[in-house]
UniProtKB/TrEMBL annotation:
The gene is Enkur. Residues 40-58 have a biased composition (Basic and acidic residues). Keywords: Cell projection, Cytoplasm, Cytoskeleton. The lineage of its organism: Eukaryota, Metazoa, Chordata, Craniata, Vertebrata. InterPro entries: Enkurin_dom, Enkurin_domain-protein. This is ENKUR protein. GO terms for cellular component: acrosomal vesicle; axonemal microtubule. The keyword Zinc-finger does not apply. It comes from Sylvietta virens (Green crombec). Residues 19-58 are annotated as: Disordered. It is found in: Cell projection, Cilium; Cytoplasm, Cytoskeleton.
């Protein structure tokens, strides 16, 4: 029997030749060889400035002439010699600078910036209270007055009584006198506290002394003392 031959043989052969690319697996493709004149030159990639504008018809443009009413400024020459002489005559003489010599060879240095010259006490504002300190003291005084006024207002609302200076002084004297009496009794305690009563008595006196010291310190610290009506 005859050999089977497909009807699509020619079509397959044509498709295979159509999709086949030359030099695909056999070396580089055939491309155009670069020209020797297209080599990379120096500063060829830097931005180029725009060309300068040429003068019209090769002639330089002259500035416009000034008008007829223009009058140039005439500079008056000064006599610097006379001017300097007058300045020297009328000027104040320079004060001598103070130096301090600290070696036998005559090495010297300025006395004023060294800290040995009393320049601060010779200032015009030496000993004068600065303005910010005065302003701060006034603000503190005003705040204290406002606080005392608010406290008095609250005391009036709560029916509190403010102690006078005489009452405060009398109470302070009485507390100090009481402290001296208890301290005298405390100093008279025996050195050896071998019984329970002695220890309790000593602890009681120490507690009273501590409380009195606290009360005396509180009254001395606060000038205004208020008590409630019980």
């Amino acid at each position: 029997p005859l050999r089977y031959i497909s009807k699509l043989k020619e079509l397959v052969k044509h498709e295979a030749e159509k999709n086949k690319s030359q030099w695909k697996t056999m070396g580089p493709a055939k491309v155009a060889v670069p020209s020797p004149n297209d080599f990379l030159q120096k500063r060829s990639k830097e931005p180029k400035l725009a060309p300068k504008k040429k003068e019209q018809d090769g002639k330089r443009l002259l500035p416009l002439l000034p008008p007829r009413t223009y009058h140039p400024v005439i500079h008056i020459k000064k006599n610097f010699i006379n001017k300097n002489a007058v300045a020297v005559i009328k000027g104040e003489p320079t004060k001598p600078r103070h130096f301090c010599v600290d070696t036998r060879q005559g090495d010297k240095y300025l006395l004023e910036p060294s800290g040995l010259f009393p320049k601060y006490i010779k200032k015009k504002n030496y000993g004068v209270i600065p303005k910010y300190v005065t302003r701060r003291n006034e603000e503190m005084k005003r705040e204290e007055e406002e606080y005392q006024a608010s406290v008095l207002e609250q005391l009036k609302k709560k029916a509190l009584k403010a102690l006078s200076e005489e009452e405060r002084t009398d109470i302070l004297k009485a507390l100090k006198k009481k402290w001296e009496e208890i301290n005298h009794a405390y100093q008279g305690l025996p050195v050896l506290t071998d019984t329970r009563y002695k220890r309790m008595h000593k602890e009681e006196l120490e507690l009273k002394l501590t409380q009195l010291e606290h009360d005396i310190a509180a009254i001395e610290k606060h000038k205004s003392v208020y008590i409630a009506d019980v």
